């Protein structure tokens, strides 16, 4: 099934028809999760392949056999993809499942089980750059045009797979209702061993130090980039144009850009030097003016040093009084300054 030029629309989101049909998407939305299932949920280009590899090896206690002989899409099949239905139904034991679908599609089914969800997020600037290059490579995605054009579509949420902002907020809003573990690409990049240990403990699969070291070594970017089971070189050129680059490009976390030079007045805060660094935006924690994290929310503007001012969430609501508009006003769009001078190579 090629359907390279086809786009499917489901739950208001455009998706590539090469991988999805209405039937496969309905199957995903009504999927019967088991209590032993583990679901990896991500927005595209947020470290999905990395997490698939880590969890494969946590389940195998560091045994590399499956990771070196079975493609990752068979070890952790995509719930919404056309080829996955039989594979998922035929698997009798605990299943490792992957999805890019938004929370509103899967949450009702997930609430009927005790399945565990691991949500991995990544700095949206890096997601946009990586997603742009993937569009140039994947023949089942539309021509992205210039990076500037693609970025406008990304910020508007009109790219395939929808809005990054809605995707992250949607899944994180379900932390209290679902068995959900939240981790970031930046967390894993900074402390791979510690991230593996935390995930293993949460999954009830504690590892020995030597097993963690084995997983660390195999899940390094350099190792995975050369592993045909995860680097997508097995995908034929008719589907993915490998002459346009490598699926696993850099695997780096750029330093956050400096705040803008100007000072912008913010009601209730006096003056603020600008938006918070990208890594803090990613973890949905704004910085106070003294550089420390404020309350958990999505506001890009800085709270008072003593934390007395209720910060805004990304949707403009007060974190302290959910559902009530905050008295503070963000005078610029979320993350707007971070795109200036972005490295798109």
Please, could you describe this protein's structure?
The chain is α/β, with parallel strands linked by helices. The chain has 2 domains: 7-244, P-loop containing nucleotide triphosphate hydrolases (Rossmann fold); 255-345, no CATH class. The protein has 14 helices and 8 strands. The strands form 3 sheets. Strands 4-3-5-6 form a 4-stranded parallel sheet, with helices on both faces. Strands 1-2 form a two-stranded antiparallel ribbon. A hairpin with a 2-residue loop joins strand 1 (7-10) and strand 2 (13-16). Helix 11 crosses helix 12. The longest helix is centred in the middle third of the chain and has 14 residues, at 124-137.
Short description:
This protein is α/β, with parallel strands linked by helices and 345 residues long.
Features:
alpha/beta; two-stranded antiparallel sheet; 2 domains; globular; 345 residues; EC 2.8.2.-
CATH class of the largest domain: Alpha Beta
Distinct helical segment count: 14
Largest sheet: 4 strands, parallel
Which word captures the global form?
A: globular
The N- to C-terminal Cα distance equals 32 Å
- The number of distinct structural domains comes to 2
- The largest beta-sheet arranges its strands as 4-3-5-6
What portion of residues is helical?
Answer: 25-40%
CATH topology group of the largest domain: Rossmann fold
Structural class: alpha/beta
As a percent range, the share of strand residues is 5-15%
- Average of per-residue pLDDT values: 75
Query: How many strand units?
Result: 8
Order of helices and strands: EEHEHHHHEHEHHHEHHHHEEH
The CATH fourth-level homologous superfamily of the largest domain: P-loop containing nucleotide triphosphate hydrolases
